[in-house]
Write a sequence for this structure.
């Protein structure tokens, strides 16, 4: 496992991190059992992953062996944009579950952070109290993505989480500015997101496809239409190019490796729905 510096925080994070387990294939294959989720956490740690993302509900399955104030293990918590007066309560709840004193990376939506002075003040108070080590802004929605590509990171924070993959590369200017400013960069949607099966996504001829194609391929069908502005550019593209000669479907590891070839990326949050999927992806890197 390769480890990269998380900006100027002093943390050395695994290049691949364990993302929220509610993403990717779970909508297609069904929820993994609690036992399988625990095995995923443990196997990830065995394979060198030292960053674990929370905030999706599955963190209740983190095995006791990974909890506690372990110096070489890090936890990221997504809180979105909560009311400022609830922020400390949310953080305390997760710290209690983890039996830790500090959340290493607190993730908030970019617009909430910059527009709500109370939220930013609450984050500063948690930092001063030692409950939060660093702040990462989530660049999920179009205005957040555009601001990042045009302006780069918010200098008062330590990192950003951006969409970046083989077919969706337009965040590269922001990623470059983050590197120049000494900020860390986490990546989401390296495999295109959780909306389509990997086989369908990589075998589709996207040069002749439309938004309707995604609706037809997606297990969720019409339910994904309201998010099409986000989904379409993230999924539509030449995924087939990642396949080696003789491969019908490129391994997921090929897509992850492509992202990691950018040295300005710190770590990729990848959601795995089974130990086998975890081993297959890391084995192909």
């Amino acid at each position: 496992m390769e480890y990269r510096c998380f900006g100027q925080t002093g943390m050395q994070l695994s290049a691949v991190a364990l993302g929220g387990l509610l993403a990717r294939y779970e909508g297609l294959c069904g929820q993994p059992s609690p036992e399988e989720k625990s095995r995923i956490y443990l196997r990830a740690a065995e394979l060198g992953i030292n960053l674990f993302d929370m905030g999706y509900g599955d963190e209740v399955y983190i095995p006791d062996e990974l909890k506690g104030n372990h110096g070489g293990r890090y936890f990221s918590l997504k809180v979105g944009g909560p009311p400022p007066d609830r922020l400390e309560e949310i953080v305390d709840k997760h710290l209690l579950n983890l039996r830790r004193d500090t959340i290493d990376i607190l993730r908030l939506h970019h617009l909430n952070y910059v527009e709500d002075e109370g939220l930013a003040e609450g984050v500063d108070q948690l930092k001063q109290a030692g409950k939060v080590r660093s702040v990462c802004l989530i660049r999920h929605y179009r205005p957040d993505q555009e601001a990042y590509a045009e302006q780069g990171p918010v200098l008062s924070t330590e990192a950003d989480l951006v969409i970046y993959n083989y077919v969706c590369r337009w965040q590269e200017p922001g990623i470059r500015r983050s590197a120049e400013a000494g900020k860390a960069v986490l990546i989401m949607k390296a495999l295109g997101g959780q909306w389509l099966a990997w086989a369908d996504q990589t075998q589709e001829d996207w040069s002749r496809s439309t938004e309707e194609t995604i609706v037809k391929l997606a297990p969720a069908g019409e339910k994904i239409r309201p998010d099409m502005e986000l989904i379409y550019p993230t999924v539509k593209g030449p995924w087939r190019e990642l396949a080696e000669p003789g491969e019908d479907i490129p391994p997921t590891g090929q897509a992850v490796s492509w992202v990691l070839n950018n040295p300005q990326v710190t770590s990729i949050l990848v959601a795995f729905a089974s130990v086998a999927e975890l081993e297959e992806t890391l084995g192909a890197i």
Summary: The chain has twelve helices and ten strands. The radius of gyration is 18 Å. Residues 23-27 have pLDDT under 50 and may be disordered.
